[in-house]
Amino acid sequence: MNQQRLWSSLQKLATFGASENISEEGITRLSLQKEDLAARKYVIELMKEAGLSVKVDVVGNIIGSLKGVDQTKPIVMTGSHIDTVYQGGRFDGALGVLGAIEAVRSIKESGIKLQNTIEVVSFTDEEGTRFGTGYIGSKAMAGELDETILQLRDDEGVSYEEAFCQAGFQPERYKEAIRNKEAIKAFIEMHIEQGKVLEGNNLAIGIVTSIQGPVWMEVTFEGHADHAGATPMNMRYDSGLAMAEVMLDVEKIATQYGGVGTVGKLRIEPGGVNIIPGISKFSIDLRHIDKTKRIDMVYKVREAIHQVSNKRGVSAKVDVKKSVDPKVCSPKVMEAIEEACHQLDQPTMKLQCGAGHDSLIMANITEMGMIFVRSKDGISHHPKEWTDTEDCAIGTQVLFNTLVNLAQ
């Protein structure tokens, strides 16, 4: 594989949605906005340059194919996403898409004839940052997309359906994106680790054994906005303090169960320095590798919300925006990745994945596995997210060998 070609493509993709000071303010490339649409065109160009046949399905998944010798055999699929969070980094998702293109391009250039067709996929809206839910492309492919998602709106009031249509896609035909389970042999996703385990063990590559499934909740407390100076403390219905209490409860509950919990998005109305908060809206992200414990975490958080609501005399509304079960990776795919590392004399280790990925959804329709690539200082979803050139190349070479192992 061509290390410089891969690195150049990663740096080029990073320009779409980049701030003027990318190392401090990062990249914002939200799904179906102009930066994302421009980046999509670049990915299509790269796929065509790699000699792949390219199609885009009705929900915007970009699919590049390298035809196998036997068209009757199920395909081997690889890929990730190119949308980002607010002020995100250069490698999250991007390495899995561009590395896959480079790996398949290198297979074609090497003259290797594979029995199975390989597909490289850039999935639509994995992050869910714009509309508050994610995995849209992979859910459509797995037959799990709920049409009610199309009515969700972003912060500007634009609905998902409107955004799709403005981008030239056909969301009303989303069922046409569904893939036959029998037609896919395996799905492999290469991704930066987004944690510190590999770096702490001085390893460039990890083999994922299981993936935590997230639950996203949006909570709204409604009290009463009053004058900050004229309203005594014992006569307040302060939604902001209710939110603050629940934030601490989330931390306590997640710690108690050995999971993780995050409150990452907050909005207070009216939002004046001298006004008691009337409405407070915030997100909760709960994750655990054990489904039963995650269910218990969600129950405890809901219980805490109810108790705080009663205590402070504010109403509470809870909307579940996303709920994905944890998944165990396929032993067959893990073996193929492990064999690839052995072929390359590349030391590795097995580890769990704490972040959510399209692999969580693809596991519902095929054998699934993930290759982790070392992250510097474990930083991700941040402008300083970084993975060294050499590590990107090593991960892509492991992916190359894994694809050959599965498709030959």
Automatic annotation (TrEMBL):
<dbReference type="GO" id="GO:0046872">
    <property type="term" value="F:metal ion binding"/>
</dbReference>
<feature type="binding site">
    <location>
        <position position="92"/>
    </location>
    <ligand>
        <name>Zn(2+) 1</name>
    </ligand>
</feature>
<feature type="binding site">
    <location>
        <position position="127"/>
    </location>
    <ligand>
        <name>Zn(2+) 2</name>
    </ligand>
</feature>
<protein>
    <submittedName>
        <fullName>Zn-dependent hydrolase</fullName>
    </submittedName>
</protein>
<comment type="similarity">
    <text>Belongs to the peptidase M20 family.</text>
</comment>
<keyword id="KW-0378">Hydrolase</keyword>
<feature type="binding site">
    <location>
        <position position="81"/>
    </location>
    <ligand>
        <name>Zn(2+) 1</name>
    </ligand>
</feature>
<dbReference type="InterPro" id="IPR010158">
    <property type="entry name" value="Amidase_Cbmase"/>
</dbReference>
<keyword id="KW-0479">Metal-binding</keyword>
<dbReference type="Pfam" id="PF01546">
    <property type="entry name" value="Peptidase_M20"/>
</dbReference>
<feature type="binding site">
    <location>
        <position position="191"/>
    </location>
    <ligand>
        <name>Zn(2+) 1</name>
    </ligand>
</feature>
<dbReference type="GO" id="GO:0016813">
    <property type="term" value="F:hydrolase activity, acting on carbon-nitrogen (but not peptide) bonds, in linear amidines"/>
</dbReference>
<feature type="binding site">
    <location>
        <position position="381"/>
    </location>
    <ligand>
        <name>Zn(2+) 2</name>
    </ligand>
</feature>
<dbReference type="InterPro" id="IPR002933">
    <property type="entry name" value="Peptidase_M20"/>
</dbReference>
<keyword id="KW-0862">Zinc</keyword>
<feature type="binding site">
    <location>
        <position position="92"/>
    </location>
    <ligand>
        <name>Zn(2+) 2</name>
    </ligand>
</feature>
<dbReference type="InterPro" id="IPR036264">
    <property type="entry name" value="Bact_exopeptidase_dim_dom"/>
</dbReference>
